[in-house]
Amino acid sequence: MTHKNFKNIDKVTYGRGSFSQLAQTVEPLRNENNKYFVYVIDNYFKGKPLSNQLQNKTEDLVYFIDVDPYEPTTQQIDQLRDEILSKKGLPSGVIGIGGGSIMDIAKALSLMLTNEGSSTLYQGLNLIKKPGIYHLGVPTTSGTGAEVSMTAVLTGPEKKLGLKCDWTVFNQVILDPELIASVPKDWWFYTGMDTYIHCIESHNGIRNNAFSLAYGDQALHLCREVFLNDKAGQTPENDDKLMVASLMGGLSLTYSEVGVCHALSYGLSKIHGTRHCFANCIIFQHLKDIYPEGVDEFNQMIKKHRIELPQNLSKEWNEDVLTQMATVSYNLPFMWNHAFGDKYREIATMDYIKDLFRRL
Amino acid sequence: MTHKNFKNIDKVTYGRGSFSQLAQTVEPLRNENNKYFVYVIDNYFKGKPLSNQLQNKTEDLVYFIDVDPYEPTTQQIDQLRDEILSKKGLPSGVIGIGGGSIMDIAKALSLMLTNEGSSTLYQGLNLIKKPGIYHLGVPTTSGTGAEVSMTAVLTGPEKKLGLKCDWTVFNQVILDPELIASVPKDWWFYTGMDTYIHCIESHNGIRNNAFSLAYGDQALHLCREVFLNDKAGQTPENDDKLMVASLMGGLSLTYSEVGVCHALSYGLSKIHGTRHCFANCIIFQHLKDIYPEGVDEFNQMIKKHRIELPQNLSKEWNEDVLTQMATVSYNLPFMWNHAFGDKYREIATMDYIKDLFRRL
Q1: What is the mean pLDDT of residues A142-157?
Q2: Which residue among A27, A198, B154, B162 has the highest number of C-beta atoms inside a 10 angstrom radius?
């Protein structure tokens, strides 16, 4: 079809304190399959107050998962799936509580619990064969848009690429701005900037329409309130807004695309394991010729919040490493096409991409 | 639950020309139930080009329905349901093509095809007992938000009230801005103003949060571009925007409420049969003391597009008629509460409401 037919999150709860409704929300699902839920939670919360508010039942399996420093891998999902199925069979559903990586793990796990073989088989668009099980996302950082997207990004032995299909989208998300209050300042900034960069890239390219612009521009407006204006900073009011900005930034991409920063970011992350949002920030500061206004505003926000980004990384990279990074980025033609139009192949050559990496 | 858990439209297609994807979109559903679709289409399109682009199959039932001057009634839905079931049994799905009234008919019909007895039994929140069948909406006017809402408003012998539950929400909408290009100018204005008034009412009240504000304020921004700014008017670019504004205005109400204008509008429509969007406009012009900035802007838009609204209607209304109208409006406490806060019962008395009607 020419026009995308996009799958929404089935149900959305938004509001301060709404996390306390988790148990009620999943109660009607508890008779499905082997009548238990799997929780996947960012290890960051182990021993923290949130770990006492999980509302889990004794039969549930609770996994605290370390997503630092590495992003989710295909191997990790396959192992977790095998362990869960051999322990207790098919669960009623998966509940993910954490940042973008945990959202991706919950989405991927839901699919891989019903699809046989390694998740590497399904990296790409519409390769998944059967619907996954019920999955619910509770984001504790805001910005990646993973709570709303139809992709579960995994790093495999060969590629960093999502399991992407309608069934990837969450059945339920609970958006409780209280949960993002405790994000350390630097990660509050990096993850929030993921939305900001999504929207700048989404706006500046050829694959736009009024839908993506309306969502993207409102998300940018909210980002400016959270990160740039007089009342900027980690306040409850701004947490409320950032959570909506992340959702809207994600929806903006439904009818648009990310661009140069994300294409480079995938190369940086795949070869060096750099976390996605952080990688975006490291790169975006150097793209003023491509996104002049966006990078100007970004640098103002960097200054305002006294964020220090690593510099001169490329000193350590030899030609071989640069080629590996550039190859990953080069193989994301949709992003380059969106950013540079029909003649993108003439512009975004391997040499050009390597030169962009040399700026870092 | 304290925080609403709202049901999204399952799938959304947006874009110029996307209506041509209708047949492809429903193809996978054609094996459901008795393997045929019911089309409900605004009679306005009978003999017009759109009626040759329906992409229906010979087995489908196609109903052109006159929604002028009256809004959908419970009796109408019950009769249509009975006729469809006796003719061909349970359809695979219902496809609605038209404005807000047709959207309401498609939603109500989908529910009443599986729920026994009269639709008057189900007017209210969560009274429907079984999920309806697949239903797809193709709006041809923009503004009511009926394409996204969880209610199918019906006028019954006793009340004008929606069938309201998660199952009311469309499984699919196709948003093709080309379809709203032919709306006559006055109805383009009235229906568009429904979104504008939604957002003014949603913003000015006690039941707000950052979600409803972000959606409502962006819808207002789009309305200003469509109806107020230099480039205002019925242009393709503005049709693109108005269709998104309607969706966002509807989503703004998810975490907020309409207010005084809608409360009065229900009274006017129930007693005099005035169409919803038109009734809103007739009323809103007189509410400057309640929504000062909104009414100012509304009057600028009225002037810009040379819309003439009826005046001095209340001359014809005796005390008995005013009491009937005010009773309908009085019995919408959520709207008055949202608009006036906790002391709303002291403000929005029957006498006060009658006085508001006397302004018309």
Answers
A1: 92
A2: A198
Q: Is the dihedral of CA B274, B101, B196, B260 positive or negative?
A: positive
Dihedral of CA atoms A34, A117, A265, A189 in degrees, nearest 10, equals 10
Condensed to tens digits (0 to 9), the pLDDT of residues A151-177 reads: 999 988 887 789 999 999 999 999 999
DSSP symbol at A214: H
Three-state secondary structure readout of chain B:
CCCCEEECCCEEEECCCHHHHHHHHHHHHCCCCCCCEEEEEEHHHCCCHHHHCCCCCCCCEEEEECCCCCCCEHHHHHHHHHHHHHHHCCCCEEEEEECHHHHHHHHHHHHHCCCCCCHHHHCEECCCCCCCCEEEEEECCCCCCCCCCCEEEEECCCCEEEEECHHHCCCEEEECHHHHCCCCHHHHHHHHHHHHHHHHHHHCCCCCCHHHHHHHHHHHHHHHHHHCCCCCCCCHHHHHHHHHHHHHHHHHHHHCCCCHHHHHHHHHHHHHCCCHHHHHHHHHCCCCCCCHHHHHHHHHHHHHCCCCCCCCHHHHCCHHHHHHHHHHHHCCHHHHHHHHCCCHHHHCCHHHHHHHHHCC
Size of interface A-B (CB pairs under 8 A): 117
**Domains assigned to chain B:** 11-180 (3.40.50.1970), 185-358 (1.20.1090.10)
Residue of B nearest to A2 (CA): B18
Arithmetic mean of pLDDT, B88-105: 97
Which amino acid belongs to residue A131?
P
CB contact under 8 A, A7 and B4: no
* Set of chain A residues whose Cβ sits within 8 Å of the Cβ of B9: 8
Residues 252-311 of chain B whose Cβ lies under 8 A from any Cβ of chain A: 255
Measure CB to CB from residue A8 to each of B9, B221, B244 and give the nearest one: B9
Residue A8 pLDDT greater than 90, yes or no: yes
Cα distance between residue B214 and residue A142, in whole Å: 16
Indicate if the pLDDT at residue B155 is higher than 90.
Answer: no
- Residue B102: predicted pLDDT: 96
Cα B29 from Cα B36, distance rounded (Å): 9
User: What distance in Å separates the CA atoms of residue A208 and residue A202, rounded to the nearest whole number?
Assistant: 7
A13 close contact with B: CB closer than 8 A: yes
Determine, for residues B210 and A177 on separate chains, whether the beta-carbon distance falls below 8 Å: yes
pLDDT digits (tens, 9 = 90+) for B50-84: 999 999 999 999 999 998 777 899 999 999 999 99
Contact A170, A220 (CB under 8 A): no
- B64 close contact with A: CB closer than 8 A: no
* Contact state of B214 with A244 under an 8 Å Cβ cutoff: yes
Would you tell me which residues 175-234 of chain B have a C-beta closer than 8 angstroms to some C-beta of chain A? 175, 177, 209-211, 214-215, 217-218, 221-222
Summarize pLDDT for A200-224 with one digit per residue, the tens. 999 999 999 999 999 999 999 999 9
- Contacts of residue B2 in chain A, CB cutoff 8 Å? 15, 17-18, 21
